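Input/output pair, single chain:
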Amino acid sequence: MKSKLKFREDGTFKIVQYTDIHWQNGDGPDEESGELMRQIALAESPDLIVMTGDMLSGGGCKDAAVSLRQITTILDECGFLWTAVFGNHDDEGTASRTELMDVMQESQLCLAEHGPEEITGVGNYSLTIEGAKTAEPTALLYFIDSGSYAPTDIGGWDWIRRDQIAWYLSESERHATAVGSKLPALAFFHIPIPEYDEVWDFHTCYGFKYENVCPPKINTGFFAALHEAGDVMGTFVGHEHVNDYWGELHGIRLCYGRTTGYNCYGRDGMPRGARVIELTENERQFDTWVHLADKTIVREQQEHTPLQRTFTED
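Output:
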């Protein structure tokens, strides 16, 4: 039986988000990625590690299952519970999403699930966090497969489908009914939704935007569902390697992770790292900071207001 998530005695719960590791075959830049993952995990001692997609550069892997096992071995050696969602590159090689999920589930520390077969994607699931002094859930985490590429001829990126949104709303209601109220929740997926553009363009944000947001061309209303359901406090994505900002839109904080992997493009002066998230039991808020490869902890990211927008030109 796999372990359950639980708030600490001091009422906190810490998550480390690794994103866009882009692992290939375990040599060169992958060795740097693995060392960084170990370094941050051991320094932060998280209650859960979440990988938000593009764990693999699928097309560059000689054997995708072998490459993914190299990642899961590192996580298992760190000794912390972990889970993941898929990105657009993970299944571009020799293994499907279903096969890659099977590989992850070989680990006794992995909490990822295949999710319902009747809805789009692999890896749509939720995890509850029990209270420090109770077996009852007091917080909730959603994990959603944001797909790969547009399923129609419009091009661009995939979108969270309407059957997935219906599943989320059903899960939200199910958990609320079980405990008698909406649980404070976070959501993790890979491809940002269109509102990541809106929050940067029209609201104060914190962190950096060095490239265009690359959401799908279709807006299926996932953000509206989150707002209406009223449980999700923040969303966490990857996909763009040199964006790490967050901003609040209509009561929900839209957050990028910090790119972790060395086997993908980056930017001089923007070290690899991870986003760290800390929940406090019975509070509908969270703290977040960035942990960098040089061991710097950035708790107060640079503020950007709409009047300052320069598309982060030098």
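Helices lie at 29-44, 64-78, 97-104, 162-179, 195-202, 222-229. The mean pLDDT is 96.
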